[in-house]
Design brief:
mainly alpha
Length: 311
């Protein structure tokens, strides 16, 4: 509640702390005051090594578990439940720095075309109009998948100056402009497809969500993932076998469109501070990772174009 975390993040922390408590109980320690820095360090090592009941965790998962443990002990000290913080000196492992996966503009166009017909196709099925509108929206605004599935009708403004109000991490609001392609796809979906999907609902009141599933309820993150994976497979950008949100990112994911949005904006000359605001990053440091991609692109162009760079 205090940090405004997403329900999925809270559940992950809860799961991490249950495992932590179980490991400590196995050592005969059931009170916070009994835990030492060595216990916390050993727990971190056990996460990376795995055991008979749990596989070894990746660096990112182990880091999240340690952050949950550090939060628990810091809270206990702040609330007077423990005299010392044994986790303060145990740092979470640093994951290797990976560049975000972005796809080219031509691949984005192939993906969007594979999602469904354009807004001018009057014979399009309602579901396909929704799928096209969803992916146009994700790429056109750089929204997170959770922001798109959590979007309500009254947060859209499709008039002369089309914008959308997005609610990001920590409950932070931001206003993002929308391009004509996303606007036209949304208008076609809202007028010709959404009413039919909403009519399938058995609830007394209609869902306020922009993107609906076949039962008239709010499209889930898993449902949106399925839409993207199916379109990516048809476009030849991903394997035919659909993956779940828990599987590692391979070719295309909802975040790939967000990465592509940022990368293409910077390639087009956008100021990094503007891109930071559009993405809803609290720090420009997070946004700067996209500049590495554009620098790589500059190197490629230089290597293939400059006469003294060839060979």
């Amino acid at each position: 509640m205090e940090r405004g975390l997403a329900a999925s993040t809270v559940e992950s922390y809860r799961r991490d702390l249950r495992r932590y408590a179980s490991v400590l109980a196995g050592r005969g320690k059931t009170r916070l005051g009994e835990i030492t820095p060595a216990d916390v360090a050993d727990y971190l090592a056990s996460l990376r090594e795995g055991d008979a009941e749990h596989p070894a965790l990746a660096v990112s998962s182990a880091a999240r578990a340690v952050i949950a443990v550090r939060g628990l002990h810091a809270f206990a000290v702040a609330q007077g439940l423990a005299a010392a913080d044994p986790a303060r000196e145990v740092r979470p492992p640093s994951p290797p720095r990976r560049l975000p996966r972005a796809i080219s503009v031509s691949d984005v166009e192939r993906l969007l075309d594979a999602a469904g017909p354009g807004p001018d196709d009057l014979s399009a099925e309602p579901r396909l109009l929704r799928d096209r509108a969803l992916l146009e929206f994700l790429y056109g605004t750089g929204a997170r998948i959770s922001e798109a599935t959590g979007l309500d009708i009254d947060e859209l403004q499709l008039g002369a100056d089309p914008v959308v109000r997005l609610i990001g991490k920590g409950g932070k609001h931001r206003v993002v402009p929308m391009g004509s392609y996303a606007v036209r796809a949304l208008e076609a979906y809202l007028v010709r497809a959404r009413p039919g999907l909403a009519a399938a609902s058995r609830r007394a009141s209609a869902s306020p969500a922009v993107f609906l599933n076949a039962r008239g309820g709010r499209l889930t993150r898993q449902g949106a993932w399925g839409v993207l994976r199916a379109a990516a497979a048809r476009a030849g950008l991903a394997p035919e076998i659909p993956e779940t949100p828990e599987t590692p990112e391979t070719d295309v994911s909802p975040h790939t469109l967000r990465h592509s949005f940022a990368t293409h904006m910077l390639d087009g000359g956008a100021d990094i501070r503007v891109v930071q605001e559009l993405l809803g990053h609290a720090s420009v440091t997070t946004t700067q990772v996209y500049t590495l991609i554009t620098v790589d692109r500059l190197r490629e162009v230089y290597a293939s174009s400059h006469p003294r760079a060839l060979g």
